[in-house]
Amino acid sequence: MVYSVRIKTFTLVVLWPVLLTGHAGCVQDQAPGDGVAICTEEIVNGEPNPFFANRPMYSVNERPLMDSRDYNRLLQESGDAYVPWQSLDRDNNNTNMVVTEWTQTGSATCAGTVTVCGFSEGAQENWLITQHINTVLPGGGGERLRKVTVQFEGTLNGCDISRQCRQSFELYKWETSAIDRNGANNTNNYVRVGRVSPDVTSGVMSFVDSHDIELGTTGGFYLGVVDLSTCVTLTRILVLYYVCPEETSELISRPEAIESQSLEGSPSVEGECVENSSTESGANPILICGPRGQWQVIKPCLCNPGYQLDSSQDKCSG
After folding, report:
1. Which of 43, 131, 137, 279 is the most buried (most CB within 10 A)?
2. Using 50, 70 and 90 to split pLDDT, how confident is the model at 202?
3. Positions of the region Disordered (predicted)?
4. DSSP state for residue 168 in the 8-state scheme
5. Where are the beta strands (DSSP E) in 158-259?
6. Are 174 and 189 in contact (CB under 8 A)?
C-alpha cells in the first residue's frame, strides 16, 4: 500500500491576541456526539472501554475540535434517532440501482468510513456536511480561533480519468455561531475554501492530507466536503488546532499558547527565565508559537555569571 502525505495552506492568518489556555483538554462544548458513549468514554458500565483504548492518540501539540473516530455512526440509517453528519445529493441522479451520494461504509465500532463513487452516472455534486464545530475557546474570555486545520485520511479508489473521474474533492465552510440544521443543509450559505488533491497516480491509493482554513469571528462553522465526480473513501476527518505546550526548555519556562501565523509577523509570547539565568537586557524572554505548535525563541535566557549550563540544558548550576 502506498501512502501520500501532504500539507497545504490556503491562508496565512494571525491569531490576535495571543490566546492562552491553562489546560490540556479540548475546546468546551464542541461538536455534539451521537449519544453513544462507547467511542468517547474511558469507562462504560463500570468496565474499561476497549474502543476508547484503541482510539487514535493526539500529540501534545494537537487540540481536537471534531474527530470522526468519536462517533459510532456518521450518517443516517433507518431507525437512527440522531447522527452528526448529513449527506446531500445536489445533482439528483440517484437511481434504484445506483446510489451516488455519500454513504457510510464499514461496520467497525468507532471507525466508520464514508464513501462516494457515482461518477459513472454523470456529473456529480454530492455534499457531506459535518455537525456544527465550535471555535470559541474556554475560559470565559470569548476568544475565537481564527484558523483550524482539517486532516483527511482515505483512499482514492481506482479513479479512471477517461470516465470523467476527478482525483480531488472540494472544501466549503459556513460560519455561524449556533447549531442550525436547516441553514447547514442550504448549500448556498457556504463559501469554498480549497481543494483536496491527494498526490496519487493510479490504482487504489491511501493518502493523508491536511489543509488550513481561515475563520472569522463568529465562533463556529459547518464543514462541507463536496464530491464533483470522484471516487473516494474517507476513513477519518479530524478538525483541530495546534498549541505550543507549557514546558520548561532552554532555560525558559513557557506558557501554553495557540499556534500563530501572520504575513505581518507573529505575536510574541513572554516566558520566564529559570533560576540563575536571565536575558541580556534583564527583561523576560520572548518566544513565538510557530507553525504546528513549535516554539521559536526570539530573546533567549543565558546563565548568570558564576553559573554554567547543566547537561540537562534546562538549568544553570553553580
Report:
1. 131
2. low
3. 255-280
4. -
5. 169-175, 191-196, 204-214, 220-227, 232-244, 247-249, 252-254, 257-258
6. yes
Residues of the domain holding 95: 3-18+26-241
Of the candidate ranges 53-62, 154-163, 204-213, the one whose mean pLDDT is the lowest:
154-163
In the predicted structure, residue 15 carries a pLDDT above the cut 50: no
Give the Å distances, CA to CA, from 31 to 70, 138, 188, 200.
Answer: 10, 14, 22, 31
Cell of 152: 483527511
Q: Is the dihedral of CA 43, 47, 51, 53 positive or negative?
A: positive
Q: Name the 3-class secondary structure at 94.
A: coil
Residue type, 129: I
- pLDDT at site 90: 81
Q: Are residues 200 and 172 in the same domain?
A: yes
Q: What is the pLDDT confidence band of residue 74, given thresholds at 50, 70 and 90? A: confident
Mean of pLDDT values over 281-310: 95
Closest CA to 115 of 103, 132, 100, 107: 103
Provide the number of structural domains found in the chain: 2
Q: Are residues 159 and 287 in the same domain?
A: no
Q: For the stretch 227-237, what's the b/e string if a residue is b when 16 or more beta carbons lie within 10 angstroms of its beta carbon?
A: bebbbbbbbbb
What pTM was computed for the model?
Answer: 0.83
CA-CA-CA-CA dihedral for 289, 293, 297, 302, to nearest 10: 120
What the block records as the C-alpha cell of 221 is 462553522
State phi, psi for 50 to the nearest 5 degrees: -65, -30
* Residue ending a domain, choose from 215, 241, 267: 241
**Domain boundary residue, one of 210, 241, 272:** 241
Among residues 104, 311, 130, 290, the alpha carbon closest in space to that of 226 is found at: 130
Cα–Cα distance for residue pair 247/193, rounded to 1 Å: 34
Specify whether 227 is located in the same domain as 259: no
